[in-house]
Structure formats: C-alpha cells, structure tokens
C-alpha cells in the first residue's frame, strides 16, 4: 500500500459543528485578497447558505477571483441554477459537478475551501444549517448535527490548493494533452522536509488515479494500531477488506470502538446491522448514536493518527464518490478529537452480542437481503471494487 504523503510544519485546527466552522470560514473569505476555490456537496437555501453565499459574492465584488463548485445531485438542479445566477451577478465563477449524471453516477462529495493559498478548510460539513436534517430541511434536529472540519495553515495548503484548482480545470474545457499533463502533475509527490510536531497529509478519492487511496490510508493505519481505534461514521457499509481489518485489529487486543449514525435510511441501517454479529464476536465495540444526526467522518488511532474528511465508510464514498480527507499525525490534535468521540460514545447506545441472539429469523433474513442488494449495486457502480 502506498502510504499517505505527510507534509510537516502545519497548523491544523479542529472545528466542531457549524457553530465553529462557518464563522471561521466566512472570516477567511472576507479577508481574501487574491483567490478562493470553494467546493461542496450541499449548498442549502437557508440562513447558513445565504451567509456563505453572501461572503463569496462580497469577495467577487471586491475583485477576488472566486471559483465555486457545487454538486448537481447534492445541491439540486433548481438551487444550483439559482446559485449560478446569483454568483454570476457578483463576478463569481461557478461550475456544477456532473449535471444530469452526464459523466456517470459519480458525485463530488468533497467539502473544500482554499483562500489565498494560505488557509484551507476540509471536512464533512456541508453548507447548511446545523439544526435541520441535511437530506430533508423540513425535519428539525433535537441537537446540532454532529460533524467536523479542519482549518489548515502551512505547507499542506499548497497540496490542497493544487487539487482544488485541478478539479476546477477538469470541469472546464481541456484538451486531451492538458488533461494528461494535469494527471501527471498530480501524481507527483508533494513532500516538504522539515522538523515539526504536526505532520499532515491530504488524500483524495476519484475514479482515475486515486480509486482506493482513502480506504488504503485507513487499512494502513489499522494495520499499525497497537492500543486503540475510535471510528465514527454515519453510513457503515464497507467491503470485506475493511471489515476484516477492523475484526483482526480487535482480535490482536486493540480496543476498537465503532460509533455509527442510525435512523436516516432503513436500507443503510439494515446493511450495517448485518455486520454486527461478526464484528461483535471479534471484539469490536459497536455504539449507535441517536441524539442527533451524526454526519462526521472521523477516526483516531493510538492517539497519534487522526483523520477528518468527507469520506464515509461505505461503498459510495470508498469506491464511487469523489472525496477528500486530511490525515493528521499529532498527539494534541488526536487527543482533542478523541475527547469529542468519547463524549458521543457516552451518549450513544452500545450494542451487545446477546441482543442479536434474539433477533427473529425474518429480521435476520431482511438484514442479509439488504446487504446482498447493497453489495450488488456497489459491484455494478464501483466496477467490482466493492470487496
């Protein structure tokens, strides 16, 4: 497995939920002097969306080069067209990712913003209000959506900027030669030799050169785990390799805690439930989070390796969608994130093996059917990579 290319001498700040993320994001956009690259999956038409949209438009109106990418499916056709018109009036460039699925079923699920090549934001937080369900804004939440992003300053920002700029170029008109040149440029490793306690890497998943990079980053870290693994994710439906890695890690005596968001999609929950018996039997601690919508895609391993990003642990994110994660090797950051995960685990509901001893035959069959359906769909759309 190719390891993550870590770059030293960075500052990485953890941002918990929109209450920390959006003020920092808008402040950075308002301070921009040169250029902004902004990419998101959902750009909602709510108070939060309007605030971010206004900040981007202010930047465009004062002469900053602002380039915005929104996903057609995640943001919606009507909303995408309205944003396009509003941004255009302010001199902001806007491109819609894969409208009407003209380039297949892939989506950009990434949440990235790079300002003046000095600060970058990466994470799982869409542009929408914390207190409303992200897939149905008519549903209010009991507590703010549980999610994270990071603000990065330092040499790693150059790598994030390069990827954001490349995504913008790919969505425009490029000759075959230019696309090949861009592909080769992005393949080059971006390393900085420096001594620092904070080392971080930027990993992306696409359908060409990086089909399994995020999964490999997880598998490599799990293989090296010695003490503990805390993994939080809303959609748990990985392939066999990932599940086996979690089980083998637990069987080595490593504490493995899996925090899963539930209650959004019955098929997703049923698929996750089909994995519980084997995971529990191998020693993995499974906890379901019911307090509010869990949307975070985060993990901490051995209090020295952590990741925050947009990639769910499911077939869509690992093998189909375009995703982006930051991986951090820093004890202070890892401990900070660990505290957040442990607090959520304490609020969750632990699943015990004996609870599945009494699950009825029909429900078990339902779980298995859900898994077979999901697996078949992933094998079709992910070109056989779901394994």
UniProtKB/TrEMBL annotation:
Subcellular location: Cell membrane
Primary localisation category: membrane
SUPFAM superfamilies: Phospholipase D/nuclease
UniProt KW GTP-binding keyword: no
Keyword line: Cell membrane, Lipid biosynthesis, Lipid metabolism, Membrane, Phospholipid biosynthesis, Phospholipid metabolism, Transferase
Active site per UniProt: 109, 111, 116, 295, 297, 302
GO MF annotation, one: cardiolipin synthase activity
GO process annotations (BP): cardiolipin biosynthetic process
CDD domains xrefs: PLDc_CLS_1 (cd09110), PLDc_ybhO_like_2 (cd09159)
EC number: 2.7.8.-
Topology class, membrane: Peripheral membrane protein
Residues of the PLD phosphodiesterase domain: 104-131, 290-317
Pfam families cross-referenced by the UniProt entry: PLDc_2
Domain of life (superkingdom): Bacteria
One annotated Gene Ontology cellular component of this protein: plasma membrane
Catalysed reactions, semicolon-separated: 2 a 1,2-diacyl-sn-glycero-3-phospho-(1'-sn-glycerol) = a cardiolipin + glycerol
Listed InterPro entries: Cardiolipin_synth_ClsB, PLD-like_dom, PLipase_D/transphosphatidylase
Cross-referenced HAMAP family: Cardiolipin_synth_ClsB
Membership in a protein family: Belongs to the phospholipase D family. Cardiolipin synthase subfamily. ClsB sub-subfamily.
Role: Catalyzes the phosphatidyl group transfer from one phosphatidylglycerol molecule to another to form cardiolipin (CL) (diphosphatidylglycerol) and glycerol.
The protein, known as: Cardiolipin synthase B
Organism: Pseudoduganella armeniaca
């Amino acid at each position: 497995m190719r390891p993550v290319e870590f770059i030293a001498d960075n500052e990485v700040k953890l941002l918990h939920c929109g209450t920390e993320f959006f003020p920092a994001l808008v402040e950075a956009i308002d301070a921009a002097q040169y250029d902004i690259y902004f990419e998101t999956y959902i750009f909602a038409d709510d108070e939060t969306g309007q605030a971010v949209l206004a900040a981007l438009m202010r930047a465009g109106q004062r002469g900053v080069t602002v380039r915005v990418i929104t996903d057609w499916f995640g943001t919606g056709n009507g909303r995408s067209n309205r944003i396009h018109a509003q941004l255009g009036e302010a001199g902001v460039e806007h491109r819609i990712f894969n409208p009407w699925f003209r380039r297949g079923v892939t989506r950009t699920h990434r949440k990235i913003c790079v300002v003046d090549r000095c600060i970058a934001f990466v994470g799982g937080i869409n542009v929408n209000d914390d207190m409303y369900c992200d897939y149905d804004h008519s549903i209010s939440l009991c507590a703010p959506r549980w999610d994270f992003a990071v603000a990065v300053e330092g040499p790693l920002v150059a790598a994030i900027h390069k990827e954001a700029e490349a995504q913008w170029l790919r969505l425009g008109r490029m000759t075959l030669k230019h696309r090949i040149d861009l592909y080769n440029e992005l393949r080059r490793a971006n390393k900085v030799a420096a001594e620092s306690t904070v080392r971080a890497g930027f990993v992306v998943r696409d359908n060409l050169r990086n089909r399994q990079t995020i999964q490999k980053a997880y598998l490599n870290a799990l293989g090296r785990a010695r003490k503990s693994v805390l993994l939080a994710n809303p959609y748990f439906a990985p392939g066999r390799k990932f599940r086996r890695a979690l089980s083998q890690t637990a069987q080595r005596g490593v504490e493995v805690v899996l925090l899963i968001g539930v209650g959004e999609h019955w098929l997703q929950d049923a698929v996750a439930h089909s994995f519980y018996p084997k995971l529990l039997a191998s020693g993995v601690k499974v906890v379901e989070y019911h307090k509010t919508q869990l949307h975070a895609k985060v993990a901490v391993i051995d209090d020295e390796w952590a990741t925050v990003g947009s990639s769910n642990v499911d077939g869509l994110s690992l093998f189909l969608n375009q995703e982006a994660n930051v991986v951090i090797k820093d004890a202070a950051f890892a401990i900070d994130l660990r505290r957040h995960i442990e607090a959520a685990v304490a609020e969750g509901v632990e699943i015990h093996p004996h609870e599945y001893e009494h699950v009825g035959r029909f429900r078990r069959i339902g779980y298995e059917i859900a898994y077979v359906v999901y697996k078949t769909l992933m094998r079709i759309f992910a070109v056989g990579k779901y394994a």
